[in-house]
Amino acid sequence: MPNPSFDIESTADFQEFRNAVHQASKEITTRYDLKRANSRLDLQDQTLLAEAADEMSLRQTLDVLKTRVVRRGIDVKSLNISDVETGGGGVYRQRIELQQGIPIETCKKIVASIKKLKLKVQASIQGDSVRVSGKKLDDLQQVIAHLKELDLDLPLRFKNYR
To answer: Which end of the chain is flanked by fewer CB atoms within 10 Å, N or C?
Structure first.
């Protein structure tokens, strides 16, 4: 019988993100304060572009988006929000991307954190995820509990626990 294992991933459903953007766009077009500020959300491929006439309206637009994203079951940590850019005509822009996968630096931090526990488990980086395997299910459960306590910049999901 093979050793028990599980995978650590960080993925979000892009279709749900698209639905959240669509709902937020509808709300923005109906709100009086954001309508006057020419606020809008524009989804192009995998990148969302938020625009507004002033920085306060841009923040309100992002608040509306975050509310819709949370209601759709996507963690706000999975949004990569860039810095505010000023465009021509006094337009403020911000790019937002949906994080898919764990960056390699974060994978290395996760593996190092697991090794510090000194449990009899093996952690290996596999592309944009981490696989943890060991002989005892209790050790794997301790690893999951430890990783949930870590404060990482992205949401972790534990899959294929067997």
So the answer is: N
Residue 44: strand, helix, or coil: strand
CATH T-level assignment (fold) for domain 5-11+102-159? Alpha-Beta Plaits (3.30.70)
Instruction: Express each pLDDT in 84-137 by its tens digit.
Output: 999 888 899 999 999 889 999 999 999 999 999 999 999 999 988 999 999 998
Instruction: Enumerate the β-bridge partners of residue 131.
Output: 7, 124
Report which DSSP code applies to 144. Answer: H
Q: In CATH terms, are 5-11+102-159 and 14-98 the same topology?
A: yes
Tell whether the torsion through CA atoms of 120, 125, 126 and 131 is positive or negative.
positive
Global confidence as pTM? 0.82
DSSP one-letter code for 76: G
